[in-house]
Design brief:
Elements (H helix, E strand, L loop, with lengths): L5 E7 L4 H11 L6 E8 L5 H8 L3 E4 L7 H14 L4 E4 L8 H6 L4 E5 L14 H9 L4 E8 L9 E8 L6 H24 L4
The protein binds 5-O-phosphono-beta-D-ribofuranosylamine (GRF).
Length: about 200
């Protein structure tokens, strides 16, 4: 009651299937009192931008070429400030931003990682590499983690985590698909918890 509508920004670089999961969760009413005010992509041809347009969400391509990490981060911060963003969701966003964004949007930036952090996080642990490593290490379980973004790489506090059995899968792409299903389930839950101030 009396809750004001919260503004979410989703940052993508690729397919945006996690973005889609959040869009769907808002459209079905699972997440209330929030809207995606903009989708920002570091890649012009990211399918995530198309998903945004399909749902009449402002889609913004922010080009990093020729900019330092600090300058690019500044551009992102300006874009977020202009739209009075309450929550920033990183969803397959492939750029590493300067610490300034973490200071400016402290505890307002969340990320999804396709493994059970703190395992299989950090440098080089992104995309398919994560799943290759999980298979290589013969892990019994993998999963997905939504966490706050801090100044480290995949080190912020965990909001929600769910595991899934590797079950002898040896194809990293197959494992990636299995984990993506978990991601699409837990990311909207984390967003809902944030919006309802239950974290
Ligand atoms: C996901 O696996 C996410 O965990 C990782 O990048 C991937 C993005 O997929 N950070 P999508 O663009 O949401 O489909």
């Amino acid at each position: 009651m009396g809750n004001k509508m919260k503004n979410i920004a989703v940052l993508v670089s690729g397919g945006g299937s996690n973005l889609q999961a959040i869009i769907d969760a808002i459209e079905t009413g699972f997440i209330r009192d929030a809207k995606i005010s903009c989708v920002i992509s570091s890649k012009e041809d990211a399918f995530g931008l198309k998903r945004a347009r399909n749902h009449n969400i402002e889609s913004i391509f922010l080009d990093a070429s020729g900019l330092s990490r600090e300058e690019y981060t500044e551009k992102i911060i300006e874009t977020l400030n202009d739209r009075k963003i309450d929550l920033v969701c990183l969803a397959g966003f492939m750029m590493i931003l300067s610490p300034k964004i973490v200071q400016t949007y402290s505890h307002k930036i969340i990320n999804i990682h396709p493994a059970l952090l703190p395992k299989f996080g950090g440098k080089g642990m992104y995309g398919i590499h994560v799943h290759e490593k999980v298979i290589e290490e013969r892990e019994k379980y993998t999963g997905a983690t939504v966490h706050f973004v801090d100044e480290g790489c995949d080190t912020g506090s965990v909001i929600i985590q769910e595991k899934v059995e590797v079950n002898g899968i040896t194809d990293p792409k197959e494992l990636q698909q299995k984990v993506l299903k978990i991601e699409h389930k837990i990311y909207p839950i984390a967003v809902k918890m944030f919006i309802e101030e239950k974290i």
